[in-house]
Amino acid sequence: MSEHDEQDEHDEHGNQHDHDSNDTYERLISLLDNARVDYELIDHEPEGGTEAVSALRGNPESAAAKCIVLRVKVDRRTTRNVLAVVPGDRRVDLDAVKALYSARYAGFSDAATAERLARSVPGTVLPFSFDKDLEVVADPDVVAQPRLYFNAARLDRSLVVSGADYARLAGPRVERIAGPAAG
User: Fold this and answer.
1) Which distant-in-sequence residues (6+ apart) come within 8 Å of 148 by Cβ?
2) Which of 60, 32, 53 is nearest to 162 (CA)?
3) 84 near 67, Cβ under 8 Å?
4) pTM of the predicted structure, to 2 decimals
5) CB-hemisphere CA count at 13 Å for 181?
6) Per residue of the chain (183 residues), what is the pLDDT tens digit?
7) Angle 161-183-170 (CA atoms, 0-180°, nearest 5)?
């Protein structure tokens, strides 16, 4: 991607969009440091898949935050972008998300939109939103984790924080959106 892709420069409000994962990583670390939150960084081989990265980090998949960008069509004119955060061993229950928004449709966002809104590449999406157009909804089993693991907007580094600190900082809407175990 060129440094100045047309869609990456500015939005209709004049805000610059920088989709460099390194900037997203720095923003996350700054947020945690400014809030004086205890966290741990874990360096590992580059990996974005929840199962594989959980094995590298040595955590149960259930303690990982799986982050999926969804497109929710509330009605013909209203589409919302939702960052669904579920335990790593579970799937997003699209019917639950659809019901939550009284929507006509809920499905996975296309890769380009997901990357633009999450400001990071697939496999590194944070359970936080730094975009006003991306709402965060987290399953209660995520915020209940004593140690919550997720890639830190990088394939080679993960972060561990308590579910309570995550909920306090990210401010997600906490709703039951996880389906049965994946696989």
Assistant:
1) 63, 64, 65, 127, 142, 160, 161, 162, 163, 166
2) 32
3) yes
4) 0.87
5) 7
6) 233 333 333 333 333 344 467 899 999 999 999 999 999 999 999 999 999 999 999 999 999 999 999 999 999 999 999 999 999 999 999 999 999 999 999 999 999 999 999 999 989 999 999 999 999 999 999 999 999 999 999 999 999 999 999 999 999 999 999 998 865
7) 25
